[in-house]
Design goal:
The protein starts with a strand and ends in a 6-residue tail after the last helix. It contains 13 helices and 5 strands. It has 2 domains: 212 residues, HUPs (Rossmann fold, 3-Layer(aba) Sandwich), CATH 3.40.50; 81 residues, Tyrosyl-Transfer RNA Synthetase. With 326 residues, it is mostly helical.
């Protein structure tokens, strides 16, 4: 079976973008691939974070993955810092990665702007650690949202550089995009993200979700109810595409263009579908939350299985590098 690897940062609320851009796709792919999913805590420490919340956020991220449909039966789920080889391989990859390549990463440039007072080496080396995450397991495929594509390209470049300089032991991983690889935030401007606080969390209460939807930006040219709108530029329509069936999409497309359906009606239709999909996830998350021991067991099992693969790869890497192995 072909192997996939993907990861998510434990940065607090997991939002609709993470869900349709990544997690829901991970669940779809479990039947076809040998799956490894990781809560990447070492990635999350490259920016300031509340230390006292990290443990909880990490367990919550794992809990959400399970609530969305992943399980120890269909995937290995673990925490990055529990398999030490990730950072070890990242160091080795640092030595084959040209600085110019990491400096041109869009995410690095964005984060460097957002965190001017803390532009640290980790922020720069972030995609190198990401390459190590993937290649430690020799995963050939990486299901991610659009914002991560550049990092996967760099992973290929790093694999190529390593293979060329030493010995060809790593595959060049390919990204797998979901049907909604870029969900915009409720501001209608930027990608939905935790940092920009323009997100709808997948575990939020219905009332909170509706409030965010109600006030979300739509087609800015549609000022009055009777103005025709353009679904192609409407933020709400992009979310509809991820949660509504074809019949509803056709109805909205036509209704929006002819002003037969107003923005609030359109949002209500979306809200209905969001509720249908997210309510069972929230209920499952609540149930799982009563037994955190189970989550810890799942993560321990995942770390043991992944740790064994990681050790084999690192033994091979050390030998390939010509290091003295006693
Ligand atoms: P992270 O934690 O920012 O996001 C997790 C996943 O969610 C996707 N995503 C989105 N998709 C569509 N629309 C959005 N608005 C949106 N926001 C986020 C992301 O593309 C991602 O797939 N660097 C990674 C984590 C990582 C990783 C890895 C991923 C570390 N190592 C190895 C793959 C392989 C990140 O910060 O994801």
């Amino acid at each position: 079976m072909k192997r996939i690897f993907s990861g998510i940062q434990p940065t607090g609320d997991i939002h609709l973008g993470n869900y349709v851009g990544a997690i829901r796709n991970w669940v779809y792919l479990t039947g076809e691939y040998d799956c490894i999913f990781c809560v990447v805590d070492y990635h999350a420490i490259t920016v300031e974070y509340p230390i006292e919340e990290m443990r909880r956020r990490t367990l919550d991220a794992a809990l959400i993955l399970l609530a969305c449909g992943l399980s120890p039966e269909n995937a290995n789920i673990f925490v990055q810092s529990h398999v030490r080889e990730h950072t070890e391989l990242a160091w080795i990859f640092d030595t084959v990665t040209p600085i110019g390549e990491v400096e041109r990463m869009t995410q690095f440039k964005d984060k460097a702007k957002q965190h001017r007072s803390n532009i640290n080496m980790g922020l720069m080396s972030y995609p190198v650690l990401q390459a190590a995450d993937i290649l430690l397991y020799k995963a050939g495929f990486v299901p991610v949202g659009e914002d991560q594509v550049q990092h996967i390209e760099l992973s290929r470049e790093i694999a190529r550089k390593f293979n060329g300089r030493f010995k060809p032991i790593f595959p060049e991983p390919q990204e797998i995009l979901s049907m909604a690889p870029k969900i915009l935030g409720v501001d209608g401007q930027s990608k939905m993200s935790k940092t920009l606080n323009n997100y709808i969390g997948i575990l939020e209460e219905e009332g909170e979700i509706w409030e965010k939807l109600r006030t979300a930006v739509t087609d800015v040219n549609r000022v009055r109810r009777n103005d025709p709108g353009d679904p192609a530029v409407c933020n709400i329509y992009t979310i509809h595409r991820a949660f509504s069936d074809n019949n509803m999409l056709l109805e909205i497309d036509k209704g929006c263009k002819t002003a037969g359906i107003g923005c609030i009606d359109c949002k209500k239709m979306l809200f209905g579908n969001l509720k249908n999909e997210l309510t069972p996830i929230r209920e499952k998350a609540l149930a799982l939350g009563k037994d955190m021991g189970y989550i810890e067991d799942v993560l321990a099992k995942g770390a043991a299985a992944c740790g064994a693969i990681a050790k084999t790869t690192m033994d091979e890497v050390r030998e390939t590098l010509g290091l003295y192995i006693p």
